[in-house]
Structures are given as C-alpha cells and as structure tokens.
Write a structure and sequence with these properties.
This is ATP-dependent DNA ligase. GO terms for molecular function: ligase activity. It comes from Streptomyces katrae. It is a single chain. With 298 residues, the protein is an alpha+beta fold. 26% of the residues lie in helices and 23% in strands. The protein contains 6 helices and 16 strands. The chain has a 6-stranded mixed β-sheet. The protein has a 4-stranded antiparallel β-sheet with strand order 6-5-9-15, covered by helices on one side. Helix 1 crosses helix 2.
Length: 298
C-alpha cells in the first residue's frame, strides 16, 4: 500500500521510500524526502514565485533522466502554476513550488529543481544574473574558483555583489541580485562579462560552448540568463553518482580550494552548514541589495 502523509493539511501519496536512488552510498528515496523536509525553508525562499522545471531521475542517476517544463501528469489541483513565455506554446505554464506540501509532492517525483532568473509576477524581467562556470577536463572546480574570484572583482567594479554556490556537479554558479531588467539586457551584460574574462584569462577561460575550445579551460556559460533558460536551484540535490547538493559557499572556501573534494557537499553536509552559517545566499532575497546593471535606467 502506498503510504499517505499529511503535510500542512495536504494529503500526499509517497511511494518507494526504501528504494535506493544512489547505489554508491545507499541513499534512499526516503532520505531524499527527509533532506528536502529538513532544508525546506532555505530552498523555498530561493524558488518561491519562480516557475520550476524538473529534471526527473526516478530510478536514480543511472536510470532514465528526462527534463520537463510542463506540470507533470497527475499534478494536484492545489499545486500552483504560472504562465511562462514560450514562442512555441503561448499557453504554457510551469509549476510553482511555493510551500512545503508542493515541495514534498515534487520531491516524491525524484527531481532536480531548476528555476528561471525572473519571478512569475514579471515573466522575462530578471532580478537575478547567473554565471555558470563549467570546467572542461582536466580542469576542475579548482580552476573555476580562480575564475569566480576574477568575476567577483569585475562585478564589484560595476557595483554588483556576487554570491557563489557549487553546481552540485562539476563547477560553480555565481549569482547576483539585480534591479529588474529585461532578460535580454541581463543576457547581453553576462555575455560581455564572459568575453572580458576570456580576454583577461585566455589560458583559463572560454566564453563559447564549442567542445573543441573547452579542454583544460572553464566555460563561463552566460546563456542561462535567457528568459527561456533555467538553472539548478540552491540546495537542490543532483542526479549524480553521489547525492550531491548545490551548496552555497563562502569566498574564503573558494580561495582555499586546492582539490575538487574541498567543494564536494553531500545531502548530509547541508543541514549542519545551514545551522552553522545560515543561508549564505540570503542577500539575494533582499531587494535593497539588488544592484543596477551598467546602462540600465533606474
């Protein structure tokens, strides 16, 4: 029998709680749900009012993975959705994970949480800028740290404050709170930053996605600022060999990183970090901390 749980008055059917999703560590689906319930306040703060895309991996990272933007079949009526701008589907909607019941319902599907850089209330008007630093082997997150520190200083020169998190995969994400601006304007600025990084660090950075250019370098992916794109949310688990999480990190941790293992954070690492440090990305949630893009009228 499928167990039914009540979360803040919503009845949610949970399934296969003993199923091992991460064979290398024996981490089960039940432990995935426990993780999300434990860190819910921090995660929900960052995905609130942001249309969510899901990367589903119901049989673990070695099984079938599929990306879905539309509300999955069987989405409960009480789960909120929001319209999203898609040229190929003018009536498209995506899920909003706004509360604990919606979070546990979504987590039961076994998903990565990916969000846009704009809130549902202002589609395609971004209040975040993101730079995804993706290392091409043999480069690792160690090289990403050097690039992140350069970008932090470059952003600061424009009056913008960057915050870092691990991607939960191989690299890093830098996020900046910005005063609302069209996604196209944010994308153009992010691309310019990536190009400047390549010019300043030619042996370390590439701003184009072409695989032939990437071995041994860090690809500064600026494209995720496009209105249609989404990025792995803070604290989401990833469909990797280990139950890694996209974890906020300090600049001191980036400066001291000497080995990729220094910035490898598993699900069990996150609650103690939150208890010790709080949410390192909390300034992104404060409108007063948002910076103005160069050339963006106030």
């Amino acid at each position: 029998m499928t167990p039914i749980t009540s979360v803040e008055g919503r009845r949610i059917a949970l399934s296969n709680l003993d199923k091992v999703l991460y064979p290398r560590t024996g981490f089960t689906k039940g432990e995935v749900l426990h993780y999300y319930a434990t860190i819910a306040p921090a995660l929900l703060a960052h995905i609130h009012d942001r249309p969510v895309s899901f990367l589903r991996y119901p049989d673990g990272p070695d099984g079938q993975l599929f990306f879905t933007k539309n509300p999955p079949p069987g989405t409960p009526a009480w789960v909120k959705t929001a319209p999203v701008p898609r040229s190929e589907d003018p009536g498209a909607e995506q899920v909003l994970v706004s509360d604990m019941p919606a979070l546990i319902w979504a987590a039961n599907l076994v998903v990565e949480f990916h969000v846009h850089q704009w809130p549902a209330s202002t589609p395609a008007v971004a209040d975040r800028l993101v730079l995804d630093l993706d290392p091409g082997p043999p480069a690792t997150v160690v090289e990403c740290c050097a690039v992140a520190l350069w970008l932090r200083d470059r952003l600061a020169a424009d009056g913008l404050h960057a915050y870092a998190k691990t991607s939960g995969s191989k690299g890093l994400h830098l996020s900046v709170a910005v005063e609302p601006a069209p996604s196209a304007r944010v994308s153009a600025y992010a691309k310019r930053l990536a190009q400047e990084a390549e010019a300043a660090l030619p042996d370390l950075v590439v701003h184009r996605m072409a695989k032939a250019l990437r071995p041994g370098k860090v690809f500064v992916d600026h494209s995720q600022n496009a209105a249609a794109k989404t990025t792995a949310a803070p604290y989401t688990l990833r469909a990797r060999a280990l139950p890694t999480a996209s974890a906020p990190v300090t600049w001191a941790e980036l400066r001291s990183c000497k080995d990729p293992s220094d910035l490898l954070f598993l699900a069990d690492d996150i609650p103690p970090r939150l208890e010790r440090d709080g949410d390192l990305l909390a300034p992104l949630l404060d409108p007063a901390q948002a910076g103005t893009l160069p050339g963006n009228p106030r």
